[in-house]
UniProtKB/TrEMBL annotation:
Entry-linked Pfam families: Porin_3 (PF01459)
Descriptive protein name: Mitochondrial import receptor subunit TOM40-1
Cell compartments where the protein resides: Mitochondrion outer membrane
Organism: Sesamum indicum (Oriental sesame)
Keyword annotations from UniProtKB, A to Z: Acetylation, Ion transport, Membrane, Mitochondrion, Mitochondrion outer membrane, Porin, Protein transport, Receptor, Transmembrane, Transmembrane beta strand, Transport
Length: 310
């Protein structure tokens, strides 16, 4: 007669470790990145600081907080034209800058030979409230502008209020809803142009990928995706669509970080191919190479530069 024996520990039905999901503590979610930076990883790969011609940047630190910078740029500048061909004229600029960096206060100023003055400010008023400001003064009428941002960082959310010249007002809010997903929205009002708008955004990120989506009442739709292949290689793609103008652009890029250099490049649906190389020769000495080719417009841009100082 068969006897019923209790199941052995090896045959007992216990859920595998993968099935035992950890409970999410919704009262202790991480703080999301600012609303204006939700596409940060994609922009790093797809939109490097491309330039044409030659540039030389030198930064000299006077003490631990104060430094001076000198920049020389020589290369062609595009001018508006009614024809399809791109018209360029040779130009040269010199830029002088002063920087003050403190743990709670940062000031940056730039003056160029064409009369433009740029200034930026970042001040931590409290541990959670930060004031940011930027301004540009030019000799051209109605081209000077300024803006102040008040950023508040909560435990699992961020909010921002913007105030600029021309009766420009804006506000944004982004909230973490899960450990990996954050949702947000923004509104703005441009009193000088009598325009207003509202937008929404979503961001999902893990250790290996970042996916973002953004829509606005102005007709803009922006999607981006970044896949971290390894510690040194990242692949990125984005999709831009404007409902009002029916413009569509898609691009694919890469970001490759080596021991002594960093290479970034992209190709988009308009036939534009770009690459940007940063080579580190020594501590405080970097060599730059920039290239952009527009096959449709037959516009070719190449540049090289040297950066001295940190």
């Amino acid at each position: 007669m068969a006897t019923l024996l209790p199941p052995s520990p090896a045959t007992a039905t216990t859920p595998p470790p993968a099935a035992q999901q950890q409970k999410v503590d919704y009262l202790n979610l991480p703080c999301p990145i600012p609303y204006e930076e939700i596409h940060r990883e994609a922009l790093m790969s797809l939109k490097p600081e491309l330039f044409e011609g030659m540039r030389f940047d030198f930064t000299k630190g006077l003490n631990q907080k104060f430094s001076l910078s000198h920049s020389v740029m020589m290369g062609p500048t595009e001018i508006p034209s009614q024809s399809s061909e791109t018209i360029k004229i040779p130009t040269a600029h010199y830029e002088f800058g002063a920087n003050f960096i403190d743990p709670k206060l940062m000031l940056f100023g730039r003056v160029m030979t064409d009369g433009r003055l740029n200034a930026r400010l970042k001040c931590d008023l409290t541990e959670n409230l930060t004031l940011k400001g930027n301004a540009q003064l030019t000799n051209e009428p109605h081209m000077s502008h300024g803006m102040f941002n008040f950023d508040y960082k909560g435990s699992d959310y961020r909010t921002q209020f913007q105030l600029g010249n021309g009766a420009l007002f804006g506000a944004s809010y982004i909230q973490s809803v899960t450990p990996h997903l954050s949702l947000g929205g923004e509104v703005f009002w441009a009193g000088q142009h009598r325009k207003s708008g509202i937008g929404y955004a979503a961001r999902y990120n893990t250790d290996k990928m970042v996916a973002t989506g953004q829509v606005a009442s102005t007709g803009m739709v922006a999607l981006s995706y970044v896949q971290k292949v390894s510690e040194k290689v990242s692949l990125a793609s984005d999709f831009m669509y404007n409902y009002m103008s029916r413009d569509v652009t898609a691009s694919f890029g890469y970001d490759y970080i080596l021991r002594q250099c960093r290479l970034r490049g992209k190709i988009d649906s308009n036939g534009v191919v770009a690459a940007f190389l940063e080579e580190r020769f020594n501590m405080g000495l970097n060599f730059l190479l920039s290239a952009e080719i527009d096959h449709r417009k037959k516009d070719y841009k190449f540049g090289f530069g040297l950066t001295v100082g940190e």
